Amino acid sequence: MKLGLVLSGGGARGAAHIGVIKALEEHGIFPTHISGTSSGAIVGALYAAGVPWSEILTFFKIIPLFHTKRFARRKPGFLNSDNFYDDLKTYFPNDSFEDLKKPLFIPAANIVDGTSKIFSKGQLIKPIIASASFPGVFTPTEINGKFYVDGGTLNNFPVEPLKNKCDKIIGVCVNPLKIVSMKDLKHSYSIIERAYKIKIAAESSNKFADCDMVINPQELVNYSTFGMSNMDAIFNLGYTSTLTALKEHKGIFTI
Fold this sequence. Notes:
The structure is a single chain. By secondary structure, this protein is of the alpha/beta class. It has helices at about 15-25, 40-50, 55-60, 85-90, 125-130, 190-205, 230-250, and strands at about 5, 35, 105-110, 115-120, 140-145, 145-150, 170, 215. Strands 1, 2, 3, 4, 5, 6, 7 and 8 form an eight-stranded mixed β-sheet that branches. The longest helix is centred in the last third of the chain and has 18 residues, at about 190-205.
């Protein structure tokens, strides 16, 4: 059976994807095709390369996202995305989609013309970095003369590449929409941020119907996009939520 795994973006909450993979493997479920955005692209790429879930979790814990040596200078962003290349090169020495053990699909948003591109062949590391380059925080990534930012800008739940390739699809969304009140929205920037989050959440949930099982841990609203100190708790939420979902969908992924 060809089984697809969709991994949404979500920053630090992407550690939940790793818990999902652990739970699936414990139940003898091994996705054959991966599609991931932003942090989901990082987890998806490492998984597609055959890196064990335990090592992927270690990667999330040790990469110094906000180290001062990574600050951008004279570039549009606080952190220079190019400085993450060597971190990934260790895991992808041949820098190639074709070198992966599973087909992988990574969306990124062209910051100039406003289009979304799905990367699935050729050089691998730059598309991963581009897809995870949160706009305004990380600098855009240049690929073949074009500049790309976070894939979640236009496609945070990239189920499309898997729809005609897989018999069944598991979706993992780590961007639940937090319930708020107007007293939480006191400033113009908070209104803008809220509107952006509503848009992303609606676009993602509208595609849940394309999946045979969706894992969407609501408790992740308690963790921030860049909260790097709660990796274990986020990982465990992904793990336990998957165990619950598998009980509710018992036998659906039996070959």
